[in-house]
C-alpha cells in the first residue's frame, strides 16, 4: 500500500485541525466572523515574523508578495542591489527588471551564501541604491544567508533591506525588528503549514515612507490598500477565506510552541538530517545550510531525477530535485513545517533505500543511526 508523504520545501504537510477547518461551510468575507479571523491571523503572524510591525496579506503565492515589495517600495529610475545565489535571488532581479529598476547584481556561486563584505563594497560604490533584495533561505540550493550581517549594513543607511523569507519563515531565525530588516515577505505553504494561496509582507516605518513616495504602477498588489483594510479585519478584494481558516489553526500551533522553539525544532531536524547524509558518505550541497531543507549532492552516475521518480512513484515519498543547472544533480529533503523527529527518520530511511535501489551502495541504516544519535543526545 502506497502512503504519500511530502518532504518538499513547499507545499508542506498540513496538520489535521487546519484541514478540518477548511471543511467547514464558507463564510462571507464581509462578516464579523471573518473580520475577527483576519485580525487574529494578522496578530499571530507578528509573532512569527518577530515584529511589532503590522503584517499585511495578499491572495497570491509568495511571488505576489515579492512583486508587491518591488512595485510598492521603488520608484521610476531607482536602482537596487540584488543578491543572486539561486533561482529565487534571480527572481528578485527579474521582477526589478520588469518594473524598469536598474539592477546591480551580486552573483554568488550556487551553494554558497553571500559575503557581507561584498555587499558592503557594493553599497559603498553605489551610494544611491534604494534597496537590497536578499533571500533568507535560497530554497533552490538550501543555503542560508546571513541576514543579520546585511541588516547591519543597511540600517545605518537610507537603503532598505528586503528579505524573501518565503520558505524559511518559522524555520530559520529572522529577527525583523531586532536586526533592523525593513521588509520581510513570505507565504502560506511552507513553514506556515497551510495550502498555497496566501502571501504576507511585514513592512517597517522606513519602508512605509518609501511606499508613500513610490510611483511604480500597482493595483491588485497595492500594499497600502491591503494593510489599511487588514487593520480593520477587512480586505480590498475577495480573499481566500478558506485558507485563512486553515492558517489560523496552523498559527495556533506555532504560537503555542513559541517561535523560538519552532526554530529550534527545525534546527534539530536539520542537524540530524545533515549528520545522516554525512554518515552515508554523501556531500552536502550548501556551504552554510539552512534549517529549512537539506540539499545533497549526488555522486557522479546517480541520476537524481530517476531517484526522485522512483521514490515518488513506487513509495509515495516526495523529495524535491535540483532546479535549472542543478537538475538531476542534487536532492533536496525538506524538514519544514509540521515535521518532527520521526518524520526525519522516515525521510532518511526511505532515502537510503532509494539510493540502494538506484544502484548506489551505501551502508543501510547508517544515516538513520546517525540521526538517532542526534535525537537521543
Ligand atoms: N522564494 C523562495 C525562497 C521560495 O522558496 C519560493 C517557492 N519555492 C518562492 C520565492 C516563490 O514562491 P511561490 O511559488 O509561492 O510564488
Number of strands: 14
* Whole-angstrom Rg: 21 Å
User: Low-confidence segments, ≥5 residues, pLDDT <50?
Assistant: none
**Bound molecule types:** 4'-deoxy-4'-aminopyridoxal-5'-phosphate
Distance between the termini: 34 Å
Short recap of the structure:
By secondary structure, the chain is an alpha/beta fold. The protein has 14 helices and 14 strands.
Task: Write structural notes for this entry.
Helix 4 (87-98) links the parallel strand 3 (79-84) and strand 4 (102-107). This protein starts with a strand and ends with a helix. The strands form four sheets. The chain has a seven-stranded mixed β-sheet, sandwiched between helices. A three-stranded antiparallel β-sheet has the order 11-14-13, covered by helices on one side. The chain is globular and about 60 Å long. It is of the alpha/beta class and 377 residues long. It contains 14 helices and 14 strands. Helix 1 runs antiparallel to helix 10 (241-257), helix 2 (32-49) packs across helix 10 and helix 12 (304-315) crosses helix 13 (341-357). The chain binds 4'-deoxy-4'-aminopyridoxal-5'-phosphate. 4'-deoxy-4'-aminopyridoxal-5'-phosphate is lined by residues 9-10, 61-63, 88, 135, 139, 164, 166-167, 187, 196. The site of 4'-deoxy-4'-aminopyridoxal-5'-phosphate (PMP) has 13 residues, from helix 3.
Task: Describe the SSE topology.
Blueprint: E1 5-6, H1 16-22, H2 32-49, E2 55-58, H3 62-73, E3 79-84, H4 87-98, E4 102-107, H5 116-125, E5 131-135, E6 137-138, E7 143-144, H6 147-154, E8 160-164, H7 176-179, E9 183-187, E10 199-203, H8 205-213, H9 223-231, H10 241-257, H11 259-279, E11 293-297, H12 304-315, E12 317-318, E13 320-321, E14 330-334, H13 341-357, H14 366-376
Parallel strand pairs: 1-12, 3-4, 3-5, 5-8, 8-9
Antiparallel strand pairs: 2-10, 6-7, 9-10, 11-14, 13-14
